[in-house]
Design brief:
alpha/beta; Luciferase, domain 3; GMP Synthetase, Chain A, domain 3; 9-stranded mixed sheet; 6-stranded mixed sheet; 25 strands; 28% helix; ANL_N_sf; AMP-dep_synth/lig_dom; AMP-bd_C
Length: 504
Protein backbone atom coordinates (compact mmCIF):
# COMPACT_ATOMS: atom_id res chain seq x y z
CA UNK A 1 0.00 0.00 0.00
CA UNK A 2 1.38 3.43 -0.97
CA UNK A 3 2.06 5.60 2.05
CA UNK A 4 0.26 8.94 2.14
CA UNK A 5 2.81 11.76 1.68
CA UNK A 6 3.21 14.22 4.53
CA UNK A 7 1.49 17.60 4.21
CA UNK A 8 3.92 20.29 3.11
CA UNK A 9 4.19 21.99 6.52
CA UNK A 10 4.83 18.69 8.30
CA UNK A 11 7.43 17.64 5.73
CA UNK A 12 9.24 20.97 6.09
CA UNK A 13 9.14 20.79 9.89
CA UNK A 14 10.59 17.29 9.78
CA UNK A 15 13.49 18.46 7.60
CA UNK A 16 14.15 21.38 9.92
CA UNK A 17 14.24 19.04 12.90
CA UNK A 18 16.55 16.56 11.21
CA UNK A 19 19.06 19.01 9.66
CA UNK A 20 18.56 22.50 11.17
CA UNK A 21 21.93 23.79 9.99
CA UNK A 22 21.39 22.85 6.33
CA UNK A 23 20.82 25.81 3.99
CA UNK A 24 17.16 26.31 3.08
CA UNK A 25 17.15 29.64 1.24
CA UNK A 26 19.69 31.89 -0.46
CA UNK A 27 18.61 35.49 -1.03
CA UNK A 28 20.78 38.47 -1.91
CA UNK A 29 23.94 36.84 -0.61
CA UNK A 30 22.32 35.74 2.66
CA UNK A 31 21.78 32.08 3.54
CA UNK A 32 18.91 31.06 5.80
CA UNK A 33 19.22 27.64 7.41
CA UNK A 34 16.35 25.22 7.97
CA UNK A 35 16.35 25.86 11.71
CA UNK A 36 16.26 29.62 11.23
CA UNK A 37 13.52 29.44 8.61
CA UNK A 38 11.49 27.15 10.85
CA UNK A 39 11.79 29.63 13.72
CA UNK A 40 10.65 32.43 11.39
CA UNK A 41 7.71 30.31 10.28
CA UNK A 42 6.76 29.65 13.92
CA UNK A 43 6.70 33.38 14.62
CA UNK A 44 4.66 34.02 11.50
CA UNK A 45 2.28 31.25 12.56
CA UNK A 46 1.60 32.92 15.90
CA UNK A 47 0.85 36.22 14.21
CA UNK A 48 -1.38 34.55 11.61
CA UNK A 49 -3.32 32.72 14.32
CA UNK A 50 -3.76 35.90 16.36
CA UNK A 51 -4.93 37.95 13.36
CA UNK A 52 -7.32 35.29 12.04
CA UNK A 53 -8.64 33.93 15.36
CA UNK A 54 -12.00 35.78 15.11
CA UNK A 55 -12.63 34.18 11.70
CA UNK A 56 -12.46 30.38 12.05
CA UNK A 57 -12.39 28.42 8.86
CA UNK A 58 -11.83 31.38 6.56
CA UNK A 59 -8.69 31.88 4.45
CA UNK A 60 -6.34 34.82 4.87
CA UNK A 61 -5.05 37.06 2.12
CA UNK A 62 -1.32 37.60 1.59
CA UNK A 63 0.28 40.69 0.08
CA UNK A 64 3.98 39.87 -0.27
CA UNK A 65 7.01 40.19 -2.50
CA UNK A 66 9.59 37.45 -2.78
CA UNK A 67 11.91 37.23 0.25
CA UNK A 68 12.79 34.76 3.04
CA UNK A 69 10.21 36.53 5.20
CA UNK A 70 7.54 35.94 2.54
CA UNK A 71 8.44 32.24 2.38
CA UNK A 72 8.24 32.08 6.19
CA UNK A 73 4.79 33.71 6.13
CA UNK A 74 3.47 31.13 3.66
CA UNK A 75 4.90 28.34 5.83
CA UNK A 76 3.38 29.98 8.90
CA UNK A 77 -0.06 29.89 7.27
CA UNK A 78 0.41 26.21 6.42
CA UNK A 79 1.62 25.41 9.95
CA UNK A 80 -1.48 27.13 11.34
CA UNK A 81 -3.69 25.08 9.03
CA UNK A 82 -5.00 28.22 7.33
CA UNK A 83 -5.80 28.45 3.65
CA UNK A 84 -4.39 31.58 2.03
CA UNK A 85 -4.83 33.53 -1.18
CA UNK A 86 -1.47 34.32 -2.77
CA UNK A 87 -2.04 36.68 -5.74
CA UNK A 88 0.49 38.60 -7.78
CA UNK A 89 1.76 41.67 -5.95
CA UNK A 90 1.79 43.45 -9.32
CA UNK A 91 -2.00 43.49 -9.57
CA UNK A 92 -3.53 46.95 -9.00
CA UNK A 93 -5.33 47.59 -5.73
CA UNK A 94 -8.90 47.40 -7.06
CA UNK A 95 -8.71 43.90 -8.61
CA UNK A 96 -6.65 42.71 -5.64
CA UNK A 97 -9.31 43.91 -3.23
CA UNK A 98 -11.98 42.18 -5.29
CA UNK A 99 -10.02 38.91 -5.28
CA UNK A 100 -9.61 39.00 -1.49
CA UNK A 101 -13.35 39.56 -1.13
CA UNK A 102 -14.26 36.80 -3.58
CA UNK A 103 -11.98 34.33 -1.77
CA UNK A 104 -13.67 35.20 1.53
CA UNK A 105 -10.40 36.30 3.12
CA UNK A 106 -10.88 37.15 6.78
CA UNK A 107 -7.88 39.45 6.93
CA UNK A 108 -5.05 40.54 4.62
CA UNK A 109 -1.52 40.02 5.95
CA UNK A 110 1.67 41.57 4.65
CA UNK A 111 5.28 42.26 5.54
CA UNK A 112 5.09 46.05 5.34
CA UNK A 113 2.63 48.91 5.43
CA UNK A 114 0.23 48.84 2.48
CA UNK A 115 -3.30 50.22 2.01
CA UNK A 116 -4.67 46.69 1.53
CA UNK A 117 -2.80 45.10 4.45
CA UNK A 118 -4.81 44.76 7.66
CA UNK A 119 -2.04 43.26 9.78
CA UNK A 120 1.73 43.55 9.28
CA UNK A 121 3.55 40.30 10.03
CA UNK A 122 7.19 40.27 11.12
CA UNK A 123 8.62 36.73 11.11
CA UNK A 124 11.87 38.08 12.60
CA UNK A 125 10.15 39.58 15.66
CA UNK A 126 11.07 37.87 18.96
CA UNK A 127 8.37 35.38 19.90
CA UNK A 128 8.18 31.90 21.34
CA UNK A 129 7.14 29.08 19.05
CA UNK A 130 4.67 27.77 21.61
CA UNK A 131 3.25 28.59 25.00
CA UNK A 132 5.93 26.55 26.76
CA UNK A 133 8.73 27.87 24.62
CA UNK A 134 8.81 24.61 22.66
CA UNK A 135 7.87 24.53 18.96
CA UNK A 136 4.39 23.19 18.31
CA UNK A 137 3.97 20.69 15.52
CA UNK A 138 2.10 21.94 12.48
CA UNK A 139 -1.67 21.81 12.82
CA UNK A 140 -3.23 18.58 11.64
CA UNK A 141 -5.08 19.15 8.38
CA UNK A 142 -7.57 17.11 6.42
CA UNK A 143 -6.39 15.92 3.03
CA UNK A 144 -9.16 17.88 1.30
CA UNK A 145 -8.62 21.07 3.33
CA UNK A 146 -7.60 24.09 1.25
CA UNK A 147 -4.02 25.28 1.53
CA UNK A 148 -2.85 27.43 -1.39
CA UNK A 149 -5.31 29.59 -3.28
CA UNK A 150 -3.43 30.58 -6.44
CA UNK A 151 -4.70 32.68 -9.33
CA UNK A 152 -4.66 32.31 -13.08
CA UNK A 153 -2.95 34.93 -15.25
CA UNK A 154 -6.14 36.92 -15.74
CA UNK A 155 -5.58 37.13 -19.49
CA UNK A 156 -9.33 37.40 -20.06
CA UNK A 157 -10.22 39.66 -17.13
CA UNK A 158 -10.10 39.24 -13.35
CA UNK A 159 -7.92 36.23 -12.46
CA UNK A 160 -9.69 33.03 -11.46
CA UNK A 161 -8.99 31.74 -7.95
CA UNK A 162 -7.65 28.17 -7.92
CA UNK A 163 -7.83 26.44 -4.51
CA UNK A 164 -5.43 23.53 -4.01
CA UNK A 165 -6.03 21.00 -1.27
CA UNK A 166 -3.39 19.98 1.25
CA UNK A 167 -3.49 16.47 -0.23
CA UNK A 168 -3.01 17.70 -3.79
CA UNK A 169 0.07 19.72 -2.82
CA UNK A 170 1.50 16.83 -0.78
CA UNK A 171 1.07 14.44 -3.70
CA UNK A 172 2.71 16.93 -6.03
CA UNK A 173 5.75 17.47 -3.81
CA UNK A 174 6.20 13.70 -3.51
CA UNK A 175 6.06 13.29 -7.29
CA UNK A 176 8.49 16.18 -7.86
CA UNK A 177 11.04 14.75 -5.44
CA UNK A 178 10.98 11.40 -7.23
CA UNK A 179 11.08 12.92 -10.72
CA UNK A 180 14.00 15.29 -10.12
CA UNK A 181 15.87 13.68 -7.22
CA UNK A 182 15.12 16.46 -4.74
CA UNK A 183 16.95 15.79 -1.48
CA UNK A 184 19.47 17.38 0.90
CA UNK A 185 22.27 18.62 -1.34
CA UNK A 186 19.96 19.61 -4.19
CA UNK A 187 20.10 23.28 -5.06
CA UNK A 188 17.21 24.71 -7.08
CA UNK A 189 16.88 28.08 -8.76
CA UNK A 190 13.58 29.86 -8.16
CA UNK A 191 12.99 32.31 -11.01
CA UNK A 192 9.20 32.63 -10.92
CA UNK A 193 7.29 34.94 -8.55
CA UNK A 194 5.97 33.22 -5.42
CA UNK A 195 2.38 33.38 -6.65
CA UNK A 196 3.21 31.37 -9.81
CA UNK A 197 2.39 27.65 -9.84
CA UNK A 198 5.97 26.81 -10.89
CA UNK A 199 6.96 27.51 -7.27
CA UNK A 200 5.23 24.30 -6.23
CA UNK A 201 8.28 22.58 -7.68
CA UNK A 202 11.19 24.95 -7.25
CA UNK A 203 10.31 26.34 -3.79
CA UNK A 204 7.81 24.19 -1.91
CA UNK A 205 8.82 20.73 -3.15
CA UNK A 206 12.46 21.62 -2.55
CA UNK A 207 11.82 22.72 1.04
CA UNK A 208 9.69 19.64 1.70
CA UNK A 209 12.64 17.41 0.83
CA UNK A 210 15.60 19.22 2.35
CA UNK A 211 17.08 21.01 -0.66
CA UNK A 212 18.25 24.60 -1.01
CA UNK A 213 16.23 27.24 -2.87
CA UNK A 214 18.16 30.07 -4.54
CA UNK A 215 15.67 32.94 -4.85
CA UNK A 216 16.13 35.17 -7.90
CA UNK A 217 15.19 38.82 -7.45
CA UNK A 218 12.34 39.61 -9.88
CA UNK A 219 13.69 43.15 -10.24
CA UNK A 220 16.79 41.68 -11.90
CA UNK A 221 14.98 38.94 -13.76
CA UNK A 222 16.20 40.12 -17.17
CA UNK A 223 19.86 40.48 -16.20
CA UNK A 224 21.70 37.59 -17.86
CA UNK A 225 24.88 38.21 -15.86
CA UNK A 226 23.02 38.24 -12.52
CA UNK A 227 21.17 34.99 -13.27
CA UNK A 228 24.35 33.28 -14.50
CA UNK A 229 26.04 34.29 -11.26
CA UNK A 230 23.29 32.77 -9.14
CA UNK A 231 23.53 29.42 -10.92
CA UNK A 232 27.32 29.34 -11.00
CA UNK A 233 28.09 30.75 -7.53
CA UNK A 234 25.58 28.54 -5.70
CA UNK A 235 26.17 25.42 -7.77
CA UNK A 236 22.52 25.08 -8.76
CA UNK A 237 21.50 21.54 -9.76
CA UNK A 238 17.97 22.19 -11.11
CA UNK A 239 16.77 25.10 -13.24
CA UNK A 240 13.08 25.48 -14.08
CA UNK A 241 11.60 28.36 -16.01
CA UNK A 242 10.08 29.93 -19.08
CA UNK A 243 12.09 30.20 -22.34
CA UNK A 244 13.27 33.73 -21.45
CA UNK A 245 15.24 32.37 -18.49
CA UNK A 246 17.09 29.80 -20.58
CA UNK A 247 17.76 32.34 -23.31
CA UNK A 248 19.33 34.71 -20.78
CA UNK A 249 21.43 31.98 -19.16
CA UNK A 250 22.66 30.70 -22.52
CA UNK A 251 23.61 34.23 -23.57
CA UNK A 252 25.58 34.78 -20.36
CA UNK A 253 27.23 31.36 -20.61
CA UNK A 254 28.55 32.24 -24.06
CA UNK A 255 30.43 35.15 -22.46
CA UNK A 256 31.23 33.92 -18.96
CA UNK A 257 31.57 30.17 -19.41
CA UNK A 258 29.29 27.11 -19.31
CA UNK A 259 27.17 26.22 -16.30
CA UNK A 260 28.41 22.78 -15.31
CA UNK A 261 26.45 22.02 -12.11
CA UNK A 262 22.82 21.85 -13.41
CA UNK A 263 21.64 18.24 -13.70
CA UNK A 264 18.04 18.98 -14.68
CA UNK A 265 16.57 21.69 -16.92
CA UNK A 266 12.77 21.92 -16.77
CA UNK A 267 11.01 23.91 -19.50
CA UNK A 268 7.65 25.34 -18.48
CA UNK A 269 5.13 28.08 -19.17
CA UNK A 270 5.58 28.39 -22.95
CA UNK A 271 6.86 26.31 -25.84
CA UNK A 272 10.64 26.38 -26.17
CA UNK A 273 11.70 28.00 -29.49
CA UNK A 274 14.20 26.13 -31.64
CA UNK A 275 16.63 29.02 -31.36
CA UNK A 276 16.70 28.77 -27.54
CA UNK A 277 17.06 24.99 -27.63
CA UNK A 278 20.05 25.32 -29.95
CA UNK A 279 21.90 27.44 -27.38
CA UNK A 280 21.50 25.01 -24.48
CA UNK A 281 24.15 22.29 -25.19
CA UNK A 282 27.21 24.53 -24.79
CA UNK A 283 25.64 26.41 -21.88
CA UNK A 284 24.58 23.31 -19.87
CA UNK A 285 26.91 20.48 -20.91
CA UNK A 286 25.83 17.98 -18.21
CA UNK A 287 22.08 18.56 -17.84
CA UNK A 288 19.11 16.42 -18.77
CA UNK A 289 16.26 18.33 -20.43
CA UNK A 290 12.58 17.97 -19.57
CA UNK A 291 9.57 19.54 -21.25
CA UNK A 292 6.95 19.99 -18.54
CA UNK A 293 3.27 20.36 -19.46
CA UNK A 294 0.63 21.56 -17.02
CA UNK A 295 -1.37 24.54 -15.81
CA UNK A 296 -2.44 26.16 -12.54
CA UNK A 297 -5.69 24.17 -12.41
CA UNK A 298 -4.07 20.72 -12.78
CA UNK A 299 -0.37 21.30 -12.07
CA UNK A 300 1.95 19.01 -13.99
CA UNK A 301 0.20 16.54 -16.29
CA UNK A 302 2.78 15.32 -18.83
CA UNK A 303 6.57 15.15 -18.87
CA UNK A 304 8.92 14.61 -21.81
CA UNK A 305 12.63 13.98 -21.47
CA UNK A 306 14.49 15.17 -24.54
CA UNK A 307 16.66 12.50 -26.16
CA UNK A 308 19.96 14.34 -26.50
CA UNK A 309 21.44 11.61 -28.70
CA UNK A 310 19.07 12.54 -31.55
CA UNK A 311 18.44 15.85 -33.36
CA UNK A 312 16.23 18.14 -31.29
CA UNK A 313 13.41 19.89 -33.09
CA UNK A 314 10.76 22.33 -31.92
CA UNK A 315 8.06 22.23 -30.81
CA UNK A 316 8.90 19.57 -28.27
CA UNK A 317 6.31 16.84 -27.57
CA UNK A 318 4.62 16.98 -24.17
CA UNK A 319 5.58 13.39 -23.45
CA UNK A 320 3.94 10.82 -21.21
CA UNK A 321 1.22 11.32 -18.60
CA UNK A 322 2.42 11.36 -15.01
CA UNK A 323 1.38 8.51 -12.69
CA UNK A 324 -2.31 8.78 -11.89
CA UNK A 325 -3.08 11.15 -14.77
CA UNK A 326 -6.07 10.44 -17.04
CA UNK A 327 -6.46 12.21 -20.38
CA UNK A 328 -8.35 12.29 -23.64
CA UNK A 329 -8.58 14.47 -26.75
CA UNK A 330 -11.99 15.62 -27.98
CA UNK A 331 -12.76 16.46 -31.60
CA UNK A 332 -15.20 19.01 -32.98
CA UNK A 333 -18.13 16.74 -32.10
CA UNK A 334 -17.10 16.61 -28.45
CA UNK A 335 -16.31 12.88 -28.53
CA UNK A 336 -12.90 11.44 -27.67
CA UNK A 337 -10.55 10.66 -30.53
CA UNK A 338 -9.55 7.02 -30.78
CA UNK A 339 -6.84 7.59 -33.37
CA UNK A 340 -4.78 10.40 -34.85
CA UNK A 341 -6.36 13.82 -35.10
CA UNK A 342 -6.61 17.30 -33.62
CA UNK A 343 -8.70 18.49 -30.69
CA UNK A 344 -8.84 19.87 -27.17
CA UNK A 345 -6.90 18.11 -24.41
CA UNK A 346 -8.82 17.08 -21.28
CA UNK A 347 -6.83 15.97 -18.24
CA UNK A 348 -7.33 14.77 -14.69
CA UNK A 349 -4.41 14.73 -12.27
CA UNK A 350 -3.85 13.76 -8.62
CA UNK A 351 -2.79 17.37 -8.02
CA UNK A 352 -5.67 19.35 -9.50
CA UNK A 353 -8.22 21.74 -8.04
CA UNK A 354 -11.87 20.75 -7.78
CA UNK A 355 -12.97 24.04 -9.35
CA UNK A 356 -12.64 27.80 -9.21
CA UNK A 357 -13.49 29.67 -6.02
CA UNK A 358 -14.79 32.90 -7.58
CA UNK A 359 -16.40 32.07 -10.93
CA UNK A 360 -18.72 29.33 -12.22
CA UNK A 361 -16.82 26.38 -13.57
CA UNK A 362 -18.90 26.48 -16.74
CA UNK A 363 -18.20 22.88 -17.70
CA UNK A 364 -14.42 23.29 -17.27
CA UNK A 365 -14.44 20.50 -14.66
CA UNK A 366 -16.69 17.53 -15.41
CA UNK A 367 -16.76 13.81 -16.16
CA UNK A 368 -16.66 12.82 -19.82
CA UNK A 369 -18.77 10.04 -21.36
CA UNK A 370 -15.73 8.63 -23.15
CA UNK A 371 -13.42 8.98 -20.17
CA UNK A 372 -12.67 6.88 -17.10
CA UNK A 373 -15.83 6.46 -15.00
CA UNK A 374 -15.93 8.67 -11.92
CA UNK A 375 -13.02 10.86 -13.05
CA UNK A 376 -13.45 14.64 -13.29
CA UNK A 377 -11.58 16.09 -16.27
CA UNK A 378 -10.35 19.65 -16.75
CA UNK A 379 -10.80 21.17 -20.19
CA UNK A 380 -7.32 22.56 -20.72
CA UNK A 381 -8.11 24.93 -23.59
CA UNK A 382 -5.03 23.56 -25.37
CA UNK A 383 -5.39 22.27 -28.92
CA UNK A 384 -3.19 19.21 -29.42
CA UNK A 385 -2.31 16.92 -32.28
CA UNK A 386 -2.55 13.23 -31.56
CA UNK A 387 -0.04 11.38 -33.74
CA UNK A 388 -0.24 7.88 -35.18
CA UNK A 389 1.83 6.51 -32.29
CA UNK A 390 -0.47 8.15 -29.71
CA UNK A 391 2.01 10.87 -28.73
CA UNK A 392 0.80 14.46 -28.35
CA UNK A 393 2.05 17.86 -29.52
CA UNK A 394 0.50 21.18 -28.46
CA UNK A 395 -0.59 23.35 -31.39
CA UNK A 396 -1.89 26.31 -29.40
CA UNK A 397 -4.68 27.43 -27.14
CA UNK A 398 -8.33 27.58 -28.07
CA UNK A 399 -8.32 31.25 -27.09
CA UNK A 400 -5.44 31.80 -29.55
CA UNK A 401 -7.33 30.12 -32.37
CA UNK A 402 -8.97 32.65 -34.71
CA UNK A 403 -10.67 32.60 -38.08
CA UNK A 404 -8.92 34.53 -40.87
CA UNK A 405 -10.85 34.55 -44.15
CA UNK A 406 -12.64 31.40 -43.03
CA UNK A 407 -9.44 29.52 -42.11
CA UNK A 408 -8.72 28.57 -38.49
CA UNK A 409 -5.31 29.89 -37.47
CA UNK A 410 -3.28 29.53 -34.27
CA UNK A 411 -1.42 32.75 -33.47
CA UNK A 412 0.96 30.75 -31.28
CA UNK A 413 1.88 28.57 -34.25
CA UNK A 414 2.66 31.67 -36.33
CA UNK A 415 4.86 32.95 -33.50
CA UNK A 416 6.78 29.67 -33.45
CA UNK A 417 7.39 29.97 -37.19
CA UNK A 418 8.74 33.49 -36.79
CA UNK A 419 11.01 32.39 -33.94
CA UNK A 420 12.59 29.84 -36.28
CA UNK A 421 14.06 32.72 -38.32
CA UNK A 422 17.69 33.23 -37.25
CA UNK A 423 17.28 37.03 -37.18
CA UNK A 424 14.25 36.99 -34.83
CA UNK A 425 14.89 37.36 -31.10
CA UNK A 426 11.28 37.76 -29.96
CA UNK A 427 7.91 37.58 -31.67
CA UNK A 428 4.29 38.12 -30.73
CA UNK A 429 1.30 37.70 -33.04
CA UNK A 430 -2.07 39.16 -32.09
CA UNK A 431 -5.39 39.00 -33.90
CA UNK A 432 -7.28 42.25 -34.47
CA UNK A 433 -10.90 42.50 -35.65
CA UNK A 434 -11.39 43.02 -39.38
CA UNK A 435 -14.78 43.65 -41.02
CA UNK A 436 -13.87 41.68 -44.14
CA UNK A 437 -11.47 38.91 -43.07
CA UNK A 438 -12.92 38.42 -39.57
CA UNK A 439 -9.45 38.91 -38.10
CA UNK A 440 -6.13 40.20 -39.34
CA UNK A 441 -2.83 39.18 -37.83
CA UNK A 442 -0.30 41.72 -36.57
CA UNK A 443 3.23 40.49 -35.84
CA UNK A 444 5.49 42.47 -33.54
CA UNK A 445 9.09 41.31 -33.90
CA UNK A 446 12.34 42.20 -32.18
CA UNK A 447 15.36 41.33 -34.32
CA UNK A 448 18.68 40.07 -33.01
CA UNK A 449 20.35 43.01 -34.76
CA UNK A 450 18.66 46.13 -36.20
CA UNK A 451 18.07 45.64 -39.91
CA UNK A 452 19.05 41.96 -39.87
CA UNK A 453 15.79 41.04 -41.63
CA UNK A 454 13.27 43.06 -43.59
CA UNK A 455 9.52 42.80 -43.74
CA UNK A 456 9.64 41.03 -47.11
CA UNK A 457 12.04 38.40 -45.78
CA UNK A 458 9.84 37.77 -42.74
CA UNK A 459 6.72 37.54 -44.90
CA UNK A 460 8.41 35.06 -47.25
CA UNK A 461 9.67 33.02 -44.29
CA UNK A 462 6.09 32.61 -43.05
CA UNK A 463 4.62 32.04 -46.52
CA UNK A 464 6.96 29.10 -47.08
CA UNK A 465 5.89 27.41 -43.83
CA UNK A 466 2.16 27.99 -43.37
CA UNK A 467 -1.09 28.66 -45.18
CA UNK A 468 -1.73 32.06 -46.71
CA UNK A 469 -4.32 33.06 -44.10
CA UNK A 470 -1.75 32.57 -41.33
CA UNK A 471 0.77 35.02 -42.82
CA UNK A 472 0.45 38.25 -40.80
CA UNK A 473 -0.93 41.29 -42.60
CA UNK A 474 1.47 43.56 -40.74
CA UNK A 475 5.05 42.96 -39.62
CA UNK A 476 6.23 45.53 -37.09
CA UNK A 477 9.89 45.45 -36.06
CA UNK A 478 10.89 47.01 -32.73
CA UNK A 479 14.19 47.60 -30.97
CA UNK A 480 12.97 47.29 -27.38
CA UNK A 481 12.20 43.93 -25.68
CA UNK A 482 8.58 42.88 -25.87
CA UNK A 483 6.51 43.51 -22.73
CA UNK A 484 6.40 40.62 -20.30
CA UNK A 485 4.02 39.46 -17.60
CA UNK A 486 5.25 38.97 -14.03
CA UNK A 487 5.89 35.31 -14.87
CA UNK A 488 8.15 36.09 -17.83
CA UNK A 489 5.69 35.36 -20.64
CA UNK A 490 5.18 37.76 -23.53
CA UNK A 491 2.28 40.06 -22.58
CA UNK A 492 0.14 39.82 -25.70
CA UNK A 493 -2.72 41.69 -24.04
CA UNK A 494 -0.59 44.83 -23.64
CA UNK A 495 0.52 44.57 -27.26
CA UNK A 496 -3.07 44.17 -28.45
CA UNK A 497 -4.23 47.10 -26.32
CA UNK A 498 -1.43 49.34 -27.62
CA UNK A 499 -2.39 48.51 -31.19
CA UNK A 500 -6.09 49.08 -30.54
CA UNK A 501 -5.35 52.43 -28.91
CA UNK A 502 -3.11 53.47 -31.77
CA UNK A 503 -5.79 52.81 -34.42
CA UNK A 504 -7.53 55.93 -35.70
Amino acid sequence: MTRRPLPLAAAFAARAGERPSDPALVWEGRTTGYGELYAMACRARQQVEAAAAPYPGRPVGLRVRKSPEAVALVLGCLMAGRGFLLPSHELPDLPLKELYEQAGCAVVLGLAGDPLVDVVVDPSAPAACGGTGQPRPPAEVAEDATGFLLTTSGSTGLPKIVPLSQGAVARFTAWAADAFALAPGSTVLNYAPLNFDLCLLDVWSTLAHGGTVVLADPERGTSARYLHGLVADHRVTLVQGVPLLFELLSRAAAESGPLTTPEHLVFAGEAMPARVLAGLPPAFPHARWFNNYGCTETNNSFLYEVDRTRPVTAPLPIGSPLPGVHWLVTGDDGRALTGPGQGELLVSTPFQTTGYANVPNGGKFAPHPDGTPGVVYYRSGDVVLRHEDGSLSVLGRTDHMVKVRGTQVSTQHVESILLEHPAVAEAAVVALPDPVAGHRLHARVRLTEPGSAGVLALRQHCAERTVRAAVPSVFETVSQPLPRTSTGKVDRNRIRESLSTARP
